[in-house]
Amino acid sequence: MSFPALSRSGGLHPAWLLTLAFLATTAPLATDLYLPGFPRVQQEFAATASGVQLTLTGFLVGMAFGQLGFGAISDRFGRLRPLLIGNVGALVASVLAALAPSLEVLVAARLVQGLCGAAGIVIARAIIVDLTKGSETARTMSLMMTVGGIAPVLAPSIGALIEGPVGWRGIMWTLAALFALMMLCVATVFRETRPREQRAAHSLLGGFAQLLRVPRYLGYGALFALTFAAMMTYISASPFVYQNVMGFSAVGYGAMFGVNAVGLITAGYVSSRLVHRWGPQRMIGVAVPSLLAFCTAVLVVSLLPVPRWILAVPIWCAVTSVGFIMGNSTALALEEVRHVSGSGSALLGFAQFIFGALVSPLSGIGGEGTPLPMALMMTTAAAAALVLVAVLRRRPA
Length: 397
Hints:
With 397 residues, the protein is mostly helical. The chain is built from 17 helices and no strands.
């Protein structure tokens, strides 16, 4: 039996919010739980490191294009059935991955796992837009990202614990169980949120054509993608910057990564509390200049002959600033295309993964011993984001 979508206070019912956050953890869970198993995969299949890396690349490519597909489908056929179909597909792909007899089969299974698992991420955002408006949308997006942000903090440690006794195949069985649990939660908690008349009003691909005619959606979507690019630059470079440059041990790096993640999660929660009073535009108007200031501080410290551990301070501040931008920029973008929010959510997710894939290799282009490429890319992304904010302020709503 489904729960009511809205609570007495007018916000989403806690069961809906927690289920939406659970859906949003698909990518970090399916990525971070699996990473500790790379050495065993390489050993079992006698593969090269780059061959094993294809299992991650396949998943991320699937996530990018799967969001495009499921976003458009959910606008045309409703949210609930595509969400359940996606969960079933991801569950089956996880089982196939766990039983994979070769690396090629594992790569293919991970591709399908990403394609189908993308349904949870893209449709969760669309459901929020279906049920909320204005600052409540921004508040709910921030809360969902706050709850969902716990997964990247815990998943690597949990994955390492699981991988020891049961290996990488056990991790795939764990993912299968999680997708089964997601399917149970969706079937128990949710009901259809997209009215039938809205589904019939759009063709399967018509939503994407409409998005390109809404400049403010494109602007806020680009702001979301640029902010994520700054964040992904930090994530991909962080193992080398913290260990090789700052001198932290592997355990120390894990602790510092956790501290930064706590800053990000806390910022998302604070944003959800302040957005009713300040509004999402004002929150972004303060957070984006702050992000640029802190990224510039990372760049300056990288160039100065000062102790390298000082880098940890502006990095933490920059990561925390992201928590005030992601949820609000998502809400503002989707508010502009409420009538095709599934397609709008899909394009946001696609841009997010494409930008992340582009910046990850560039962040280490200068080698393992310098933070300068990371600092330059973070600063460039933040500067472009600030230009977008200035342009959006001048464009009428």
